[in-house]
Amino acid sequence: MAGWQLAHRMGRLGTESAFEVLARAQALAEQGRTIVNLGIGQPDFETPGHIVEAAVKALRDGHHGYTPANGLPALREAVAEDLYRRHDARVDPAQVVVVPGGKPTMFFAAMMFGQSGAEILYPNPGFPIYESVIRFSGATPVPIALREETGFAFDAEAVLARITARTRLLILNSPANPTGGVVPKAELDRLVAGLADHPHVVVLSDEIYSRMLYDGAHVSLLRYPELADRVILLDGWSKTYAMTGWRLGYGVWPRALAEHATRLCINTHSCVNAAAQYAGLAALTGPQDAVSEMMAQFTRRRSAIVAGLNALPGVHCTTPGGAFYAFPNIAGTGLESRAAQDLFLEKAGVATVAGTSFGAFGEGYLRFSYANSLEAIEEALSRIRAVL
């Protein structure tokens, strides 16, 4: 038996169940099973060619060394310009910190504000890494229940009622994973107004799906000047530009926190891969046709999967307002979430993710990613119908 002993905090670190389901699906595929994967949350499109070529050119041009820890100046300027175009929000490039994906911004925020005795509010059902990093920080996770009857958008008064003197950070996500829920502007207005009574609370706004909205315009928390000194924006390239494997994201930090975020970069990963940053620059400054084409495909797939799910016995599904996830209620099947996930994978050869993987309030639901072809979606629904 090994003589070493792990630090207790390692026992508080969770995982992302979608990757566990992916591993099981791949194992079944290696056994000769045909698996339809509606579990993993990544676009099934290739990164647009001009973005790939920008990375190749950067390598050929000799960009093989370190970059500034917070990102290439040109890339941070491009991010600021993009945010102004999309959100009418003026951001100083010095507030932008480029990181390898979306998760470092979550982790940095939790490390800055989470400690024993502190509380951090987070959406439930929500991205599982929120609760994981909160627990790892030593803080107490306080769930914000998201309900189907409100389209999985939070109720501002309910959120404000959960804030205490110990609350240090509030995590929000719209459009949301796993539900596809979108918070209406009126609800954001009420929340921001109420936060005036809680100046000790910092807000982490995860807007990684901000370009993936089906109706209306995205409302960023950057648009509220009264939160300028305490809102952290999380965004990036993974979903919008089909760049999940490039590991490229960014945070926009209040001026007083940007330096702390940069020091965390220096201590964890030094800087982001240089070629990937040049690819990110090309994505923001180049043609956006591929983004529009991808969203047109997702729109068609959304219609197909929602209609198909609602036709299954014991299942009903609200129409997601954003992202590329459907979150159907399966209570009518008599199956609990984890049992349904396992049944559909083992018997139907369809990978989905149990709603409980996203928190206790996800019981009775499954997450379906429609980042797959219409043919695959139709095949998956046919197989599930046969099993049910």
Give the CA-based shape: globular
Spatial extent as radius of gyration: 21 Å
Roughly what is the average pLDDT, rounded to an integer? 96
Number of strands: 12
What is the tally of helical segments?
12
- What is the fold-level CATH name, i.e. the topology of the largest domain? Aspartate Aminotransferase, domain 2
The CATH architecture designation of the largest domain is 3-Layer(aba) Sandwich
What is the percentage of strand-forming residues? 5-15%
The major β-sheet equals: 7 strands, mixed
Please tell me the total number of domains: 2
Helix/strand structural class: alpha/beta
How are the strands of the biggest sheet laid out side by side? 2-8-7-6-5-3-4
Low-confidence stretches: none
Helix content: 25-40%
How widely separated are the two ends?
Answer: 47 Å
CATH-level-4 superfamily name of the largest domain? Type I PLP-dependent aspartate aminotransferase-like (Major domain)
N-to-C series of helices and strands: HEHHEHEHEHEHEEEHHHEHEEEH
* CATH class wording of the largest domain: Alpha Beta
Description:
The protein has 388 residues and is an alpha/beta fold. It folds into 2 domains: 8-34 and 289-387, Alpha-Beta Complex (Aspartate Aminotransferase, domain 1), CATH 3.90.1150.10; 64-285, 3-Layer(aba) Sandwich (Aspartate Aminotransferase, domain 2), CATH 3.40.640.10. It is 39% helix and 13% strand. It has helices at 17-30, 49-60, 73-87, 103-113, 128-137, 156-161, 185-195, 255-268, 274-285, 289-310, 337-348, 374-387; strands at 36-37, 96-99, 119-124, 140-145, 167-173, 202-206, 231-236, 249-252, 325-326, 350-351, 353-354, 366-369. Helix 2 crosses helix 9 and helix 4 runs parallel beside helix 5. The longest helix has 22 residues, at 289-310. The protein is globular. The N and C termini lie far apart (47 Å).
